[in-house]
Amino acid sequence: METTRNFKDDKTLPLVSVITPSFNQARFLEETIKSVLVQDYPRIEYIIVDGGSTDGSLEIIKGYAEHLAWWVSEPDRGQTDAINKGFARARGDVLAWLNSDDTYLPGAISEAVAFLSANPEAGMVYGDANLIDEDGRLIGKFPARQTDYKHLMRGHVHIPQQASFFRSELWRQVGPLDPTFFFAMDYDLWVRLAKIAPLCYHPRLWANFRLHGGAKSVAADDRCWPEMVRVHRREGGSWFSWISFKAFIRPFLYAWLPVRLRVRLRKFI
User: Fold this and answer.
1) Nearest-angstrom CA–CA distance, 62 and 201
2) pTM of this structure
């Protein structure tokens, strides 16, 4: 099932399309939706792509349907497929996706648009993100900092996906996301974007990144780095590289570490 809505907004402002992929995240989904809808930016096209949830998510989505540009609830091939499906519908000048267990902080979208408007050379802007637990308690801060193609190829990502916004004209050049990636589809996109435009870090707090037992960041971290190595090799990188070394040692180093320490170590490893 799906529904579509037309917007009547100030056409002089860039339209921002936000995609939320979701599957059985009813516990967090409403908070995510509200964090988008309370943004002070007037031109937001919000799209939710649900993978056929059976946990009450559909009822939550229907409750906010009048505020959505488009939504669908049907089986899909996973998160990457859902994001691609949403962006295929998106009409925005600026694109972002916000997972259904993460949230925006007030003013995030207006500040991101202001940065991109003031810096036309920037292909993407990203800010800072809090790390929160399943109950919304602050447990740390994502180690965001400036990165570029060279550093990305070494595995120095430092981009909180929840706090990133990129231009749709670049997406049309490098998208869609590679559906064979389960975890590192955002890293793959950052690498492709960084080849053609600067990715700019703006030290403003824009999002909450939720860490909990059911999150992919926790449940499937061991799949992330092998996928990142795939990107590195596709770009002509060597097997005997820093990113390959990190991918090799991380499973041994991280096996005994709590989740919050794993994320904090990204600053160094």
Assistant:
1) 36
2) 0.86
